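Dear H.,

Thanks for agreeing to be a second pair of eyes. The structure we're designing against is below in token form, covering all 85 positions.
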């Protein structure tokens, strides 16, 4: 079953995994999941295959590493600052 997740839902999705987990196992688990970003969509399994770390002890570790491979457009308008105004 193909699923869709928003970036702010990723923590709950990662909590469903059994830890420790390898990046390959996480990628396999989410291979049919579309991650909906602020500007477009990406396959979550493909993003997880790009991770530099091979093993994760917690969902927080996995999520932090995922943020390192997200495109700039993932969380909002490029070069825009939150909270300034």
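And this is the sequence the design step returned. I haven't edited it by hand at all.
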């Amino acid at each position: 079953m193909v699923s869709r997740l928003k970036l702010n839902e990723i923590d709950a999705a990662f909590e469903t995994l059994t830890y420790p987990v390898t990046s390959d196992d996480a990628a396999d688990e989410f291979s049919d999941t579309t991650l909906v970003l602020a500007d477009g969509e990406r396959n979550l399994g493909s993003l997880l295959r790009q991770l530099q770390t091979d093993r994760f002890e917690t969902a927080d570790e996995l999520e932090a590493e995922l943020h390192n491979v997200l495109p700039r457009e993932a969380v909002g308008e490029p070069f825009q600052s939150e909270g300034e105004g």
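Two observations from my side: The longest helix spans residues 59-67. Residues 3-69 form one domain.

Warmly,
E.
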